[in-house]
Amino acid sequence: MHAPLNDQNSGLRKTGVATCASVTTLAIVWLLMAAVVEPAFAQNERVIYNFRNLTDAYGPKCNLVLDAAGNMYGTTSGGGVHDLGAVFRVSPTGMETVLYSFAGGADGSNPVAGLFRDPATGNLYGTTVNGGAFGNGTVFMLTPAGDESVLYSFKGGTTDGANPTSSVLRVGTTIFGTTFYGGAYGYGTVFKLTAAGQERVLHSFNSAYPILDGSHPHAGLVLHNGVLYGTTTLGGVFNLGTVFSITPTGTEQVLHSFEGGSSDGQGPYAGLIFDQSGNFYGATYLGGTDNAGTVFTMNLQLGGVTLLHHFLINGVDGVNPYGTLIFSRGNFYGTTLQGGSANGGTVFKITPGGSETVLHSFTGGTDGFNPDAALVLGNSNILYGTTIQGGATNLGTVFKMKVGP
Questions:
Q1: Res. 340: pLDDT tops 90
Q2: Which of 108, 68, 59 has its CA nearest to residue 88?
């Protein structure tokens, strides 16, 4: 579900447990931010699984989550027995199993977000954009055996959120997440859900003047020092998106309103990651020198966003990053939805100094096309990801890439 960026007021995981990456505090100058892209089109990208047909899951927009054995779990908004979305598992050797097919009734339909996996039980937690008791989406749990239960059905309207596009964050037995629509003003919400199934709207976004809050959060939340942080795709002072914080009891603060243009980002669909020094990092879909997206950092104490990279429309660099960054071996890794040599998106690496390398440029052939989500790091320094299209049947792929020795 890609929100219209021209709409006018309308974590870092292996097993599903968020961890803080450790990076060096940055001292960046603008010349490094706009450095020329270094192409290094990798020969080590390999498709593990090609989604096959309409009864299979297909067209994944989600990031993957791994278990200790290296199995990968994700969702698709289409496919499954009813073509209303599915939860799938792919083994390290490329064997795929559809664990659950959404029927579109009370069980939910059309999930677009990744999953949270409880390493103790193997249970998977996620959201669906539609379906549920009121047709406004759900929070669900799926056991390793494939038994699905709806933990909550969103009511929509002015009293509840609607249509969640984000993954959930589970802290103890409490679940936190965002909804793209709904709430008191219709601009989306932050919610929490107890183990007993009691939901509370922690914040209703209000993008109308004079509040100028964020609106339409697409990404999930990250917890840092007891406070939740996230992004909104629109809203803020310039209606071009925000970075916000919110306490578990519902006190929200806008930390940055994106201005767009050549000196700031615009429209963040991606979530945030943190380092141990309290710096956070993210990506915006638009903005920057070529209005093709940015990678940014912000220090909580100092405030203000610093752009690490401006994506360039030059036939080499990727454009329009959509998924959240990850951090590994001293560098940031991510994907762009478009751009690259065939305009099929890229996998990229960015150093803490702002130097970017394109690791793979998707061609739209057997290697996949249009990666929409974050990467995940597995064993042996291997990155795993998904593409919406491409592959042997043009129905999307699960792929892997080796990073470093």
A1: yes
A2: 59
